[in-house]
Design brief:
Blueprint: H1 3-35, H2 39-43, H3 65-74, H4 80-110, E1 120-123, E2 129-131, H5 135-144, E3 169-171, E4 177-179, H6 183-188, H7 196-202, H8 204-215, E5 219-225, H9 228-231, H10 247-258, E6 262-264, H11 267-273, H12 289-302, E7 315-319, H13 324-328, E8 340-344, E9 354-357, E10 366-370, E11 375-383, E12 398-405, H14 412-420, E13 423-429, H15 430-465
Parallel strand pairs: 5-6, 5-13, 11-12, 11-13
Antiparallel strand pairs: 1-2, 1-7, 3-4, 7-8, 9-10, 10-12
Helix pairs in contact: 8-15
């Protein structure tokens, strides 16, 4: 046999070993594991993928059969978890140095310097940016804020779950930060409702409060604010999704179909604007002024208030200073690329509403706004920190608007404002809904029960006097 033939034979043998070897060894280990459990847990562990594994349908399009078989095999290839984890670690170790060093130098070499602080733009009806400080900014904005369309036939890029500085903050793709711990079970669908019966039992405090509001002639609105990862899942690590229908959507749909409660979960509305605007802050858990403006308009529409479309507003991009995830992770914002938020340039009240702080004017926990030209109704709003960015878009629309943080429940002046209100609005972010909303409902119910008794005594007394 010639040297050339021997060499070819060795190459073929190596190729066969590489193809067959992993399958044989994987099968052997799987057999051993059936007798001595534990081996496969180390080899075939959970990758936390945000998708279901490919399956073979009973009817396969022959033009795509090769692709379908390849997808099916790729999801079941031997030692898949170990190989993907190795790739994730390599990608993660390369990405940060590239972002922090090489990318900046390349941009500096091939691009003009962009003065970010002075960027102003106007948005047309179709959402395109038509006025910017320079051509490079316009190109950047239209590209960076474009919606990420994902082809279902393309392979997704795996991104590992990693916490920043061993904190509760998740490092997402492209330097985005997300809140972990509480949020992940909701995001993956691990924390959800398993049946309509469970939902029916869960919303009893909402129904109870709605019935009480109807008795004393008060309108009730509940708004649950979507978490950032529900609007920007493309920047999240790759996680296994156990239920594709989010918990608040199950709640919202059941409430809409079975009760007369106004329950708002504005995920779909926010997604409509995602293509042309940034809606949440990159290093913070909260939405930015644009996201808050969209939510405020939805809330006002539910109250029958006329709104001004976002496309008619003039915006200015400004650098972000505060970012709660930076503090939670015990890091410095200077360690991350600069990011921006928006400032509304022409959203000012023509009526100069009078803002009166009932609690600390620094923390702004509670205050009343009086606006002579606003709608002739008194609105009571109670909620968590997501209400803060919405406040300026609500203050001038009502003759009297009381805003309160849930921590002040039990204080006498809060109870008095509930009794005086025409509309009661509860506004809670998704992660706080299960923890806080039932408690807030019960508190308002108790206050309205007291108010109902006061009304009964008042009319009883007046009827006797007359």
């Amino acid at each position: 046999m010639s040297n050339k033939k021997v060499q070819n034979f060795i190459y073929i043998l190596i190729f066969i070993v590489l193809i067959v070897g992993p399958m044989v060894s994987y099968s052997i280990l799987n057999k051993i594991d059936s007798e001595h459990s534990g081996i496969m847990n180390v080899i075939d562990f959970n990758l936390n993928e945000k998708r279901n594994k490919a399956t073979l349908s009973e009817t396969i399009d022959m033009s795509k059969i090769t692709y379908e078989l390849e997808k099916y095999y790729n999801d079941r290839v031997p030692f898949r978890s170990i190989l993907i984890t190795a790739k994730r670690n390599i990608d993660a170790s390369i990405e940060r140095p590239y972002k922090n060093s090489i990318e900046k130098k390349l941009l500096k070499l091939f691009s003009k310097r962009i003065e970010r602080e002075s960027v102003t733009h106007v948005v047309k009806e179709d959402g395109k940016i038509i006025k910017c400080m320079d051509e490079q900014v316009e190109i950047f904005l239209n590209h960076a804020l474009a919606k990420n369309e994902v082809d279902p036939y393309e392979d997704t890029i795996e991104f590992p779950l990693k916490y920043l500085n061993d904190s509760k903050v998740i490092e997402g793709q492209s330097d985005w930060l997300f809140l972990g711990e509480i949020n992940i079970p909701y995001y993956t669908g691990e924390k959800t409702f398993s049946s309509e019966k469970e939902i029916k039992e869960y919303i009893k405090p909402y129904i109870k409060l709605k019935e009480k509001c109807d008795k004393v002639n008060k309108n009730l609105v509940i708004m649950v604010c979507p978490e950032k990862e529900e609007i920007y899942p493309e920047y999240m690590p790759t996680l296994d999704i156990k239920d594709e229908i989010e918990r608040p959507i199950k709640l919202r749909d059941y409430i809409a179909n079975n009760t007369d409660i106004t329950y708002i979960y504005p995920k779909e509305e926010l997604l409509k604007y995602k293509k042309n605007y940034l809606l949440y802050r990159k290093y913070d858990t909260h939405w930015n002024p644009v996201g808050a403006y969209i939510a405020a308009n939805i809330l006002k529409e539910s109250l029958g208030i006329e709104t001004i479309p976002l496309k008619k507003q003039k915006l200015k991009k400004v650098d972000v200073v505060d970012a709660d995830l930076i503090y939670y992770a015990n890091t410095n914002i200077e360690n991350l690329p600069h990011t921006f938020t928006y400032k509304f340039l022409n959203y000012k009240s023509d009526h100069n509403p009078d803002k009166i702080f009932i609690n600390d004017p620094v923390t702004q926990d509670s205050y009343t706004v009086h606006c002579a030209e606003g709608e002739d109704r008194k609105v009571f709003l109670i909620g968590d920190s997501f209400r803060e960015a919405m406040e300026e878009f609500l203050n001038k629309d009502f003759k009297e608007f009381f805003c309160n943080v849930y921590l002040n429940m039990g204080k006498k002046y809060v109870a008095e404002e509930i009794k005086r209100a025409d509309d009661i609005v509860i506004l809670i972010v998704e992660r706080n809904e299960e923890l806080l909303l039932p408690k807030i409902c019960q508190y308002i119910y108790d206050v309205l029960g007291e108010y109902e008794n006061e009304l009964r005594e008042f009319f009883k007394k007046n009827s006797k006097e007359s």
